[in-house]
Amino acid sequence: MKILSTLIALFLLTLSTASAAENVSAGDITVSKAWGRATIGANRPGGAFLTITNNGAADDQLIAAETLAAGKSELHTHTMTDGVMKMAHVMSINIPAGGMTMLKPGGFHIMLFNLKRALNEGDMFPLTLTFKNAGKATIMVHVGKVGAMETMDHKMHMDDEEHKKMHEEHMKDAEHKKMHEEHMKEGATEAQ
User: In this prediction, what percent of the chain has a pLDDT beyond 70?
Assistant: First the structure.
């Protein structure tokens, strides 16, 4: 069973960007713009960042995250204590009703420990998020450069001929085209 799990994780880590969904939903929650940073090796922890929108009338909470790419995933935040920035594990992240919460460097984020292999720029991996009310949602995380501070710029990504061809082929699918158009017109603001 352990070998099968490892093979599945490796397969999912090497999926092409053309197969990734930009948005996923569970109940009133929509998760989008999932990205992570490349790591220097598998011994270093990774991080995942994303945007969570609550379209409902009641607050919800992100209470867990898990991925086959890592042995352990934790919700984290950064705090300032006596002039020193420290990272701290948190049990949940509030997603306000009708609001948006951004998980990003220097704020709330998901730490990935005991990576199965190094995260390399261009990799993707599935990340399953568990919400207190909405349940579970799984999104593909796109891995950017080491030390990246934000998700890959879509225009720069599309300047690469290989990605441009894959994107044009993928845009022939009506569902993906609609999802892409919604993604491109989104404007995220912080809820916190």
Answer: 65
The reported pLDDT for the residue numbered 151 is: 57
Query: Rounded to an integer, what distance in angstroms lies between the CA atom of residue 83 and that of residue 91?
Result: 24
Assess contact for 50 and 103: CB atoms under 8 A.
yes
Alpha-helical regions (H) of the chain: 2-13, 154-158, 161-170, 174-185
Name the CATH superfamily, with its identifier, for domain 2-185: PCu(A)C copper chaperone (2.60.40.1890)
- Residue 154 clears pLDDT 90, i.e. is over it: no
In 3D, which of 36, 41, 44, 48 has the Cα closest to residue 145? 36
- 153 CB-contact burial (10 Å; exposed 0-12 / middle 13-18 / buried 19+): exposed
Taking Cα atoms as reference points, which of 35, 46, 30, 63 lies closest to residue 186? Answer: 30
pLDDT above 90 coverage of the chain, percent: 54
